[in-house]
Amino acid sequence: MPDITFSTLGVPYPLVEVLAADGKTDAFPIQVDTLPDTLAGRDVLGRGKTGSGKTLAFAIPMVARLGTRLAGGGRRPGRPLGLVLAPTRELATQINAVLEPLATAYGLKTTTIFGGVSQNRQVSALKAGVDIVVACPGRLEDLMQQKFVTLDAVEITVLDEADHMADLGFLPGVTRIMNATPADGQRLLFSATLDNGVDKLVTKFLHSPKVHSVDEANSPVAAMTHHVFGAADAETKKQLIEALASGTGRRILFMRTKHHAKKLAVQLTAAGIPAVDLHGNLSQPQRDRNLAAFGAGEVKVLVATDVAARGVHVDDVELVVHVDPPMEHKAYLHRSGRTARAGSEGDVVTLVLPTQEKDLAQLMRKAGISAATQRVTPNSDAVVALIGDRAEYVKPAPREARQPQGGGRSQGANAQRKRAARTEQPGQKRSDRSGRPARSGSGRPARSGSGGSSSTRGGSSSYYSTSTGGGSSQSNRASAPSGNPRRSGRRAQG
Fold first, then answer.
1. Residue range 383-442, pLDDT digits in tens
2. Three-state DSSP class for residue 232
3. What is the CA radius of gyration of the chain?
4. What distance lies between CA 344 and its chain's CA centroid?
């Protein structure tokens, strides 16, 4: 089949220029199938395998229509025209990164809304006026309840990764959000499967949708090669992990728990293989920083939990390693989909111990993957071939010395007052460990001197403290942080 360009599909010239500047001229199958309908304003149900290019499949028509025919006059605070719902903040951030340059071509503004960070920036953006909001359901509902955003002007709504939102229990919130949008707006829903209630969303909110399926739901990617490496014991597995992580290309290692993901990233870095972790215990700035380092190539290894299986869209990931096999086959396919994206090739390795082989065989059958278990060591030909050229050893940065957690000299006002009392009356004995002066014959404490000292209170030192044992607590504490006039549409009416 000959390549079909975006201009051939009717994409407006300003967007064709933006796409061409990013090296995108030919459309992928899901874009070829859906763009004629979405650009015409029809509701669409898109089902395609991970990495199929569906983000552009909905980003292009949303910007093309909101920037021209559906534009709604001058922006008004808290009244967006376009809404994209995504299950995770990582995915929301990635979607916005695709949308933003397209929106800029028409002078449209976008913003992201998700939890885990302060809402202040998000509220400020809404008050200033935005055209397209990319949001996670939970925080969006919070802001709706606080009256910072209303959805009665929304012309186009997109539900991305609807099946994953169902897995996370978001469908009740999604239903409430969809009910708040105009019933005659355009709705686009993209999902790998229609189970767990997704089919009910389709029935309730999409009007005679055009259905486009590039491949069977959750189908494996043809350009992806799957390997199962059997390790004799835990020590051999550890050596295999380090070997597979030592190549020069980008690779993602998946773990089952947040603790193990963090631990493995630290171990690899200590072994001279710079690695960053991605999991639910990280703050949003930490996630953004680690993803940026991985995307920019500053580090070649990302150690992640399943939080990244849907939200990481980084080009040229050549290898995915299931260090811990996932619990079910859909997770396997979504993890694996971080490589071989958009027509590229990639390899997927699953490491398995003898006790895990039976469960893994069942999982692979459900995923439609056929790969025989190979007994390997780090020096086996199959392993060496996947490693490719080895990256140079990178000496790890020295770790900061940990501050002692006990036995130090307290700098609290109470402790200073007691020390002062003992200093001024050295001959007086204490009756207990509290530092109270010895009692006199009348049963009352013997009076001491003023016992005064600095009234500044000090806290116990933390892991990140730079204070020393004998300094003033006051000096060690950080100071407190202290439109287009031709537009006419739904927003212009209200």
1. 999 999 999 999 888 766 555 555 556 666 777 777 777 766 555 555 555 555 555 544
2. coil
3. 29
4. 23
Burial degree of 76 (CB within 10 A; 0-12, 13-18, 19+): middle
Residue ranges with strand state E in 81-155 = 82-85, 110-113, 132-135
- The whole-number pLDDT of residue 427 equals 55
Together in a domain, 233 and 258: yes
What is the secondary structure of 298-365 as a DSSP string?
A: S-SEEEE-THHHHH---TTEEEEEESS--SSHHHHHHHHTTSS-TT--EEEEEEE-GGGHHHHHHHHH
Buried b vs exposed e over 256-270: b needs ≥16 C-beta within 10 Å? Answer: bebebbbebbebbbe
- Sorted by sequence, the CB contacts under 8 Å of residue 334 that are 6+ apart come out as 50, 164, 306, 309, 310
Supply the CATH number for residue 288's domain. 3.40.50.300
Q: What is the per-residue pLDDT for 83?
A: 97
What span, in angstroms and rounded, lies between the C-alpha atoms of 403 and 417? Answer: 25
| Average pLDDT of the residues in 311-316 | 72
Q: Can you point out the beta strands (E) in 355-492?
A: 373-375
Whether residue 249 sits in one domain with residue 140: no
Cβ atoms < 10 Å from Cβ of 117 = 17
pLDDT at 321 > cutoff 90: yes
Q: Supply the pLDDT for residue 242.
A: 95
pTM recorded for the entire structure: 0.65
- Element (DSSP H or E) covering residue 388: none
Chain Cα centroid distance, residue 249: 21
pLDDT at site 328: 85
Q: What does the block give as tokens for 153?
A: 């002007």
Q: Strand 132-135's sheet: what is its strand order?
A: 110-113, 132-135, 82-85, 156-159, 186-190, 44-47, 210-213
More confident residue, 206 or 331: 206
Domain boundary among 213, 235, 252: 213
pLDDT in tens, 32-90: 999 999 999 999 998 766 566 788 999 999 999 998 866 666 788 999 999 999 998 88
Q: Using CA atoms, how far apart are residues 349 and 177, in angstroms rounded to an integer? A: 40
- Examine the domain organization and report whether 281 and 144 are in the same domain: no
Top pLDDT among 391 and 462 is at 391
Q: What three-state secondary structure class fits 157? A: strand
Does 177 share its domain with 156? Answer: yes
Closest CA to 28 of 63, 56, 64, 47: 56
What SS3 state is found at 1? coil
State the residue range of the domain holding 158: 13-213
Instruction: Please count the structural domains in the chain.
Output: 2
Q: Tell me the C-alpha distance between 86 and 298, whole Å.
A: 28
Same domain? 237 vs 207: no
Pair 62, 200 in one domain: yes
Q: Of 213, 236, 261, which one is at a domain's C-terminal end?
A: 213
